Amino acid sequence: MRRTIWALLALALLILGFLLLTRPAAAAPAGGEVVVLRIEGVIGPATSDFFARELARARVREAGLVVLAMDTPGGLDTSMRAIIKDILASPIPVATWVGPEGARAASAGTYILYASHIAAMAPATNLGAATPVAIGMPGAKPEDDAARKDRADDGAKDKDGKSAAGIGDAMMEKVRNDAAAYLRSLAQLRGRSGDFAERAVREAASLSADEALAGGVIDLIAADLRELMTKLDGREVKLDGGRTQRLSTAAATITEITPDWRMRVLALLSNPQLALVLMMIGIYALFFEFTSPGFGVPGVAGAICLLVALYAFQLLPVNWAGVALVALGAILMLAETFLPSFGALGVGGIIAFVVGGLFLMDTEAPGFGIPLPFLLGLAVASALTIAAVGSFAARTRRRPVVSGREQMTGMVATVSTVTPEGAWALVQGESWRVRSDSPLAPGDRVRITALDGLTLHVEPLTPDPVNRREGIPP
Questions:
Q1: Where would a tag sit more exposed on the chain, N or C end, judged by fewer CB atoms within 10 A?
Q2: Do the beta carbons of residue 128 and residue 149 sit within 8 Å?
Q3: Is residue 160 part of a domain?
Q4: Which key words are in the record (predicted)?
Q5: Residue 338 carries which DSSP code?
Q6: Tell me: the pLDDT tens digits for 428-450?
């Protein structure tokens, strides 16, 4: 009997120990370091790279929370989705805080805020205006309900049964529907307002911090990071796989990380205007190297600029037809310098360059457009530079030859030595064998009339006090 009681007691202890070992990690408060990542400005490839690297480092350091302090007008869809994928798969809770006061989370920032485990804003901040836009698509402006109803009522069918709305409108509607579904799915995942998510995409609606809190879009309002840590202390966060974690942030160490040199370089390269300038420099420098070989520096610099420009284009959502048109325009402007086209190639090159620049970017995200004045200025500057180089080359071609064998005809020399084998004269400090139909004596002044191999044909000169220096034409 006693043995049975001990066996039951041992079994009960074993089951209790098993339950304690398999207890969810959320029951234990998560303390440790809080890593704050600051993102300011346009969200692009550099931003997504910075976030991915620092999130991985925070995981290695076993941080208890990653805070994304954000102030952005929006950015690229691809970079935004890369950041959201990292947040959704993160084993560490990610809190997005729109701050400090006066900051915003517009467009792509709204999606990131919705995807975060915790959404917070500082007073006097706003979010929203999440309508996707793209170059070349009519109807890219957001529609209100009345406009959509009117378009639906007036959408007469043509003879083929297709809607009277243009293809561009249909494409933009598909993009809006995809964006609305994406933001709505993030709202459902985090238990936030799906109604505002829909309006933010379709109507470009925006909310202030107080309105967002009242509408269930965000979780809390905090004026600064320390207040945010205080309000997050003890909050339970649901992570990937259904695991929950309780935050312990009241006394946590805050480590703030700002963008490093790598992100600054990537952000600089992600500027389409700089990429376009580097491409033009690369094309012109390589052209100069091919037409004047031997110098080396233009070729090396041009190759580096062109490769860096292509790398920048690879980072950006570019239209490669636009890149080809820009390159064709530069080549045509260069060809105008050497071919007698009477301006046809040059004008065509400028047109191709400007049109290619307009087609270059596939997005109107803030910070990634190429203004028309910039394109026109760059095209005119290129045309003027090429015209100046061509004019200089033409003037140089018309000048008399000042070096080589052709230069020597007509120059004056002084006979230095006369022997039975022949005579020699000094020409610009060099001793040349000379031949003349008239007898020569040392010290005679002669004029070079022709060259026969390494022998100069000369004729005697009457002494002229003005032309005493050797090698100077009279």
A1: N
A2: no
A3: no
A4: Hydrolase, Membrane, Protease, Signal, Transmembrane, Transmembrane helix
A5: T
A6: 778 888 888 888 888 888 988 88
The candidate with the shortest Cα–Cα distance to 272, out of 240, 220, 315, 229, is: 315
Six token digits for residue 90:
């993160």
Four-point Cα dihedral 322, 326, 332, 336, nearest 10:
150
Name residues whose C-beta falls within 8 Å of residue 397's C-beta, 6 or more positions apart in sequence: none
- Please check whether residues 256 and 306 belong to one and the same domain: no
Which of 98-107, 253-262, 418-427 has the largest mean confidence?
A: 98-107
Query: CA 227, CA 220: separation in Å to the nearest integer?
Result: 11
Residue with tokens 């080809």: 324
pLDDT digits (tens, 9 = 90+) for 105-132: 998 999 999 999 999 999 999 999 888 8
CATH number of the CATH domain containing 66: 3.90.226.10
Which string of b and e fits 172-191 if b means at least 16 CB within 10 Å? bbebbeebbebbbebbeebe
Q: Taking a C-beta distance cutoff of 8 angstroms, is the pair 32, 58 a contact?
A: no
**Residue at which a domain ends, from 225, 247, 263:** 263
Amino acid at 95: A
Angle between helices 344-359 and 320-336 (to 10 degrees): 160
CA within 13 Å, CB half, 428: 12
If one counts the domains in the chain, the total is: 3
Structural domain of 453:
405-467
Same domain, yes or no, for 360 and 256?
no
Residues 216 and 88 in one domain: yes
Q: What is the distance between the alpha carbons of residues 140 and 67, in angstroms, rounded to a whole number?
A: 33
- Looking at the DSSP bridge assignments, the partners of residue 342 are none
Which has the closest alpha carbon to 252: 420, 71, 95, 424?
Answer: 95
- What is d(CA 221, CA 231) in angstroms, rounded to the nearest whole number? 9
Q: At what angle do helices 167-190 and 108-115 cross, to 10 degrees?
A: 30
Q: Does residue 166 lie within any of the structural domains?
A: no
- Are residues 125 and 237 located together in one domain of the fold? yes
Q: Are residues 45 and 26 in the same domain?
A: yes
Both 295 and 438 in one domain: the answer is: no
Please state the three-class secondary structure of 427-442 as a single string: ECCEEEEEECCCCCCC
Q: Is 282 exposed, middle or buried (0-12, 13-18, 19+ CB in 10 A)?
A: buried
Cβ–Cβ under 8 Å, residues 92 and 59: yes
Look at residue 136 and tell me if it is in a domain: no
Take residue 91 and report the two structure tokens written for it: 């084993």
